[in-house]
Known about the structure:
Blueprint: E1 2-6, H1 11-20, E2 25-30, E3 36-37, H2 43-53, E4 58-61, H3 76-97, E5 106-111, H4 124-144, E6 149-156, H5 163-166, H6 178-190, E7 197-200
Parallel strand pairs: 1-2, 1-4, 2-3, 4-5, 5-6, 6-7
Helix pairs in contact: 1-6, 2-3, 3-4
The structure holds NADP nicotinamide-adenine-dinucleotide phosphate.
NADP nicotinamide-adenine-dinucleotide phosphate binds next to helix 1.
Amino acid sequence: MKILVIGGTGTIGSRVVNELKKRHSVLTAGRSQGDFIVDIENEKSIVDMYAKCGKLDAVVVTTGKVVFEPLQNMNLEKYLVGIHSKLLGQVNMVLKGVSYMNSAGASFTLTSGILNHDPILQGSSAAMVNGAIDGFVRAAAIELASKSIRINVVSPTVLTESAAAYGDFFRGYKPVDAAEVALAYSKSVEGAQTGQLYRVGF
Ligand SMILES: NC(=O)c1ccc[n+]([C@@H]2O[C@H](COP(=O)([O-])OP(=O)(O)OC[C@H]3O[C@@H](n4cnc5c(N)ncnc54)[C@H](OP(=O)(O)O)[C@@H]3O)[C@@H](O)[C@H]2O)c1
């Protein structure tokens, strides 16, 4: 398969690339490095990236930012960061990517996270965006099925590799290794399921 991993140089994405490149041709895209440069918040940039990539068998998105702050400090501008980046950035990867997918079993795999299921302090934006991504994937799956395109979402708990950065937010949570998270992406890309939410570590 020819697979594009957007965010493929990141903590999760690099492990997904390592897992999938054992068996497939894997291309990466990121804002500052990778085989293709793309900004998921910029529609023209997404369109240009797909045009350069050509036809694909799978698109995996492992990127998107949100603001972590106490509710009392949040405002609409801060919520819009997560909406424009993690939510609509991933949604637009699907909308603009559909016409580049090869037929029969091609797939999109998006990334959400634990926080809409098991919330933490300062995580209201992450919870909101993750819930929206999970809902989008469930609904999009029933329409993409008519094109024989699959779509799933991977929802990890905090990663072992990110514990130093985020550990204080996640006291009492058992981290999961990125290599284990990568297996959920493998299941999505190399399996046959669609409309699924793959929770990892919770
Ligand atoms: N790490 C965790 O514990 C964890 C747990 C659950 C969910 N998640 C979710 O998983 C996703 C990835 O997390 P991560 O920890 O792997 O992130 P990361 O290590 O910060 O990596 C982010 C990746 O995305 C790329 N990127 C950043 N901004 C971009 C943009 N505007 N357009 C295109 N690419 C962009 C980066 O490339 P450049 O370096 O070139 O900018 C990098 O490859 C996030 O949505 C996060 O919320 C993470």
